[in-house]
């Protein structure tokens, strides 16, 4: 559920009709701000809100562009820019040693595990896979947009795969790591 909440602004933006992209960007911004406010109110630190904070900034800029010029060329590349932005956020989180998945994982993991090398390494691997998926998705969506099919079924399938593949990997990898830890503990 944490990943769904984390990426909810992006999902909201994706489900808005293409012709209403400015409203989709505004709705995504409002969702991102609401998530941040709710999480901060419950005591969550900004280190656990890396994607959410980046989402708010991205959608604020995108909404400003979209309302200023609803026919902007940015529209056709907005899906690629979205994935590219997520790739940058995730990549920077890795580069600074704070994988964005750490904050998500800490929500469901007891604090005594947070500083352990296997926990951190698991999150580095997971964040790296998400980063690679975001990069691949951004490139694929840019190519589709360049070919004039930015708002096609192919673009939708690419966007869905860009989230589904790393999500499935995350679930399976965490299960694998936990199973392996259980074998060592015996």
TrEMBL record:
Keywords: Membrane, Transmembrane, Transmembrane helix. The chain crosses the membrane at residues 20-37, 49-68, 80-101, 122-145, 157-175. The keyword Membrane applies. This is Threonine/serine exporter-like N-terminal domain-containing protein. It comes from Streptomyces diastatochromogenes.
């Amino acid at each position: 559920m944490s990943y769904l909440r984390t990426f909810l602004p992006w999902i909201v933006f994706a489900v808005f009709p293409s012709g209403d992209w400015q409203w989709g960007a505004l709705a995504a911004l409002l969702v991102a701000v609401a998530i941040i406010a709710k999480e901060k109110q419950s005591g969550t630190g900004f280190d656990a809100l890396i994607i959410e904070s980046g989402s708010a900034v991205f959608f604020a800029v995108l909404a400003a562009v979209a309302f200023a010029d609803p026919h902007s060329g940015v529209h056709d590349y907005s899906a690629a820019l979205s994935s590219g932005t997520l790739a940058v956020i995730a990549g920077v989180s890795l580069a600074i040693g704070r994988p964005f998945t750490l904050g998500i994982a800490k929500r469901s993991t007891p604090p005594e595990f947070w500083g352990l090398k296997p926990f951190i390494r698991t999150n580095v691997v997971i964040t790296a896979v998400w980063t690679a998926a975001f990069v691949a998705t951004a490139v694929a969506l840019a190519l589709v947009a360049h070919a004039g099919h930015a708002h096609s079924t192919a673009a939708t399938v690419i966007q869905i795969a860009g989230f589904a593949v790393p999500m499935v990997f995350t679930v399976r990898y965490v299960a694998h790591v936990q199973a392996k830890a259980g074998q060592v503990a015996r």
